[in-house]
Amino acid sequence: MEDKILLEHGSGAKKTRELIEDLFVNKFNDEKIVDEDAALIYDGKLAFSTDSFIIEPEFFIGGNIGKLSVCGTANDLVVRGAKPKWMSVSFVISEGYPMDKLQAITDSMAKTAKDAGIAIVTGDTKVIARKDFSGIMINTSGIGEIIHATSIKTIECGDVIIISGSLGDHSATILALREGIYLENSVESDCAVLYPMLESIIMQDIRMFIRDITRGGLTSILYEISIATGFGSEISEENIPVKPAVKELCDIMGLDYLGMANEGKVIICVKPQLADIVLDELHRSELGKDAAIIGHITDVHNKVLLHKKNKEVIILTEHTNIPRIC
Amino acid sequence: MEDKILLEHGSGAKKTRELIEDLFVNKFNDEKIVDEDAALIYDGKLAFSTDSFIIEPEFFIGGNIGKLSVCGTANDLVVRGAKPKWMSVSFVISEGYPMDKLQAITDSMAKTAKDAGIAIVTGDTKVIARKDFSGIMINTSGIGEIIHATSIKTIECGDVIIISGSLGDHSATILALREGIYLENSVESDCAVLYPMLESIIMQDIRMFIRDITRGGLTSILYEISIATGFGSEISEENIPVKPAVKELCDIMGLDYLGMANEGKVIICVKPQLADIVLDELHRSELGKDAAIIGHITDVHNKVLLHKKNKEVIILTEHTNIPRIC
């Protein structure tokens, strides 16, 4: 292991997994901490998850750090098969932080939580000197009631891989703003609470895996599946929805949307016979209208393959050089 | 309200309460967020709390930021009358942070949690560029099973005020280290999980209020009691346990131990007839061996009085100039 923390340890990809395994899982002695986005507690009745948010810029098209912090933790519960119910919020704010920005952030958190039926019930506020940090960090932790627990461990060979919509919208929005890049096509963050879109799917008593496609992007999740199950996967570029603005930004910055973070998209793995039911339910929601089958789970361990539009087949590698945006 | 965040907003005293009321409680619409250290959820069966920790220095006599982060959140659950059961941990670490320090911190968290019967079940890790922040921040959120819910609202006029031990140990330890002050007397942080000390008291089915005496110190809690209940309080200086090293540091730095934070001390309010039972239970524990009755609740709203050793009686004011140490 390295003797210092590297930015790459926060990429959401391989180095993050190694750090978590070495420093946390083996000590805290709970495998749930690495394989799933939320832990099951209280005899499996509840899901529990946590996430900290520091982003630059804090305000963006489609949201702000406040909305993001509610959506991010809520979605970690939702993809575990839970209805998010209670949330804590902890602020670390730098001295001199403008009160009107803080107001706008808390307004946004309150509205997002209320709209999603989530009660923000407890909190903490720390103020630190400007010399130590400038800006705001928000931690949210959430508890949800399990409706039908999903798990990465239940994935089987032959399962189809569905994604709920276009990839890279949140990353592209943040990166274009941060780098001052003008895009000809418009894009906004997909930041949203996904419970309404997924409720009817979770309520069906079927074996499935759901994961929100955040830090590390789609490629990292496909590798996580491989590590957790021993299977591989194949996906087809031509079936993956992606917006023109995201492609444009990827061309300019040399990035790959398969490794970029989203804040309102999920991957779902189910057996082929149920794919149409899941797709139909996703298509009913505005958030899932572009949902598509993009590939399937194979029996080739640790091989994550992409069929490109030019018929070439490549082995995907995890991207660790994409700037963190959540 | 000010147009910018001030350091004072993080003092744990009046300005913190104002900020929380203005920005959070009124929006998130849940009074629990301000009056109690933990919220009751799931039909009152569970307590839920959160806390973020950034301290300098991160390692001190009696603990480190890791131990502190487990104790702090655990104690917020305990004082609400719950047995802490599950915890999340979220790290924000600066690029370049030494891995051996991170190892020592997570070792300490794992041991503290394990010793207290708490399972760390879920987590998050973010790495940020050194230019933005240098060091480590830890958020812990915890869930406990309610044994007998305590509440500030149940305090009655005439209740005795008990504290579980000497005040200011944690603050004095941190401040002496931070300022490079040599103390003739030794002191170490009182950082500890308080469930073992309080279990037998919580299990008794009696009306009581318990609060850990952290940021803002004893004085702030006495004002919180006044705001929440409409009562006042009187305490006697001669009955308040305080260590020679803490007095020494207070003399050097011009601080008041009544406003200083602790990480292993509580205040308990119960009716006079039960005071001896509570004291006896506290005295059984090494952590509570110096527990003492220091005063009582009065019917004079918003008057927090201190009977000094020289027979003078003064009205205590909240301290907002004491450096934050947790």
**CATH fold-level label of the largest domain in chain A:** Phosphoribosyl-aminoimidazole Synthetase, Chain A, domain 2
Low-confidence regions of chain A:
none
Structural category of chain A is alpha+beta
Percent helix of chain A: 25-40%
Total domain count of chain A:
3
Mean pLDDT of chain A: 92
End-to-end distance of chain A: 25 Å
Biggest sheet of chain A, in brief?
7 strands, mixed
CATH superfamily of the largest domain in chain A: PurM-like C-terminal domain
Determine and state the CATH class of the largest domain in chain A: Alpha Beta
Give the SSE string of chain A: HHEEEEHEHEEEHHEHEHEHEEE
Beta-strand percent range of chain A: 15-25%
Task: Give an overview in words.
The structure is a homodimer of 326-residue chains. Chain A is an alpha+beta fold. Chain A has 3 domains: 1-35, no CATH class; 36-146, 60s Ribosomal Protein L30, Chain: A, CATH 3.30.1330.10; 152-315, PurM-like C-terminal domain (Phosphoribosyl-aminoimidazole Synthetase, Chain A, domain 2, Alpha-Beta Complex), CATH 3.90.650.10. Chain A is 32% helix and 25% strand. Chain A contains 9 helices and 14 strands. The first copy, chain A, has helices spanning 14-28, 32-35, 65-78, 99-115, 169-179, 195-203, 217-229, 244-253, 275-284; strands spanning 39-41, 46-53, 59-60, 63-64, 82-94, 119-128, 136-146, 160-163, 209-212, 232-236, 266-270, 292-298, 304-307, 313-315. In chain A, the strands form 3 sheets. In chain A, strands 9-11-8-12-10-13-14 form a 7-stranded mixed beta sheet. In chain A, strands 1-2-7-5-6 form a 5-stranded mixed beta sheet. The first copy, chain A, has a two-stranded antiparallel ribbon with strand order 3-4. Chain A is globular. Chains A and B meet through helix 1, strand 2, strand 5, helix 4 and strand 6 of A and helix 1, strand 2, strand 5, helix 4 and strand 6 of B.
